[in-house]
Amino acid sequence: MNSSISQNASSPKPSIWKAFLSKEDWWAVWLGLGIVFLAYVFYLAGSSISWIAVAPAKWSGFSDLGGQLAKNGIRYIALLAGLLALFTLITSFIGQKPRDFIRSFLFIFFLSAIIYIIGSWDQASKYNLEPPLLALALGLFISNVIGLPKWLDAGFRVEFYIKLGIVLLGATLPFTLIMWGGPIAIFQASIVSIVTFLTIFFTARKLGLDRRLAAVLGTGGAVCGVSASIAVAGAVRAKKEDPPIAISLVVFWAIVIIFVLPFVARLLHLPTGVAGAWIGTSEFADAAGLAAAQSYGGLADSHLGISGTADQALASYTLIKVIGRDIWIGIWSFILALISVTIWERTETNSKVQIGQIWWRFPKFVIGFLVASVLTTLIVQGNSLEDYNAVVKPALITPITSLRTWAFTFSFLSIGLTTRFKELANAGLKPFIAFTIGVIVNLILGYFLSVAVFGDYWANIITN
Amino acid sequence: MMKRSRHIQWIASKKTPQCKKCIFFESDPAVIEKTFKGLTILSSGYGSVRSDDGLCLILNRYLSSRDSCGGYIAADRRHTDPKVRQQGTHKLPLYHVYLHNY
Description:
Mean pLDDT of chain B: 72
Largest sheet of chain A: 2 strands, parallel
Mean pLDDT of chain A: 91
Shape of chain A: globular
Strand order of the largest sheet of chain B: 1-2-3
Radius of gyration of chain A: 22 Å
Low-confidence stretches of chain A: 1-12
Number of strands of chain B: 3
Oligomer: heterodimer
Low-confidence stretches of chain B: 1-14, 82-102
Helix content of chain B: 25-40%
Number of helices of chain B: 5
Number of helices of chain A: 18
Shape of chain B: elongated
Distance between the termini of chain B: 18 Å
Strand content of chain B: 5-15%
Number of strands of chain A: 3
Largest interface: A-B, 67 and 38 residues
Strand order of the largest sheet of chain A: 1-3
């Protein structure tokens, strides 16, 4: 046998510092934790970052809205300037042209502000104008019907915005919640991930597809969408044609599910925490799932008979998706790489499977999410509930939540703006059948576990 | 297929440096994002999960930068192609050829 597991001593050691500066995961960690740290410094000084972390308040008419904008206009400009400076610096480090990024981000910010303002209208939920879905629909319309120049893509960094938002989300979730809910999330997500992967893999094999393509499709549907597919593609040495097939299928189904799951959950009147868990179990990509979870959470206060809070939808979603699924991508890659070189390709290659890839492929933004949660939990500890609601929340948590919502809106809008259906690869009938069967199994099993098995837990999840 | 398989077996049998520094290996995130259409919709070429994986322009595979094979040519060595030599760089012309051939 030519293969072996090793931590090859002769391998050139990857530069730790290079990864810190070239990977957007780490930049999301630095920026997210930097914002939390700054918020804490202001809070300790008896002040708050709330002035710059501006967000539209609920409004009921144009005069009301006009008054708000006239009063806070300078704050919006300050927020734009701050984000533009930071994001331009970061994206130039990872290789974007600052000029293109700046022009693109101005476009994103302007559209996001409009979406955020529409979402704050007190009649928005009556007309199904949930900001995440609105952002996505608007982005899809612009990119597929109107069309945009390619250079604008420089600012449509879906993953960077969503990772930053998730780090900031960590700062608004108590660490105790992660400790208590984490094991349940991992258990539920693991069942669904393994069943979905095996379903897609063996269906694909039955249909005669290559093992590597079957693995790339399987992890795309079972673990974390396109990111899982691309990670496993590298681990199993997939053909160059394989990742685009998985990308097309994941994008197609992820966008369908963004709209369908909140709609079905609404018909079933699922509590927000339960719906968040179902979305976390069955949606593929972080950004797509967050759009669906945030959209559904937004219905909690709209008198539609949906119990729970918006935070519960986000908390249960994040626990299942990030803690239950995302962090295992390195292990999936390692196992599949091991199978690849020991069984599938043993006559073709002597490539080594390096256990280090569990860390190399680890989604590092999760570290920022956890650290932010620990920091805020330590800061908040010792305050009574009254103090928390009267002082800590408005001065520290609300501004971070506001910045998080901006980051998520940039991401949801960018999903739509980057999705050009005619540019996606033609997946072919067999991969489509295999993946779709996996999606159906995933949705049914995800519903069963989220509602019937762990429904009580997710419905009553405590987020503060 | 058999021919390629034998080729891979042959080139893999020799102890060689890793793909990371091979002239035929392309792992630039911007290039990966351009090659895999739609990657940026729900993921990124700059994410941690991708590690330093890249495309082998010879084997037409997407693989780890830590892999190796006997077809290795150091990226800093002058290529024998006179056209490439004239331009004084290897990555760009090879990538150019690659993009237009596949």
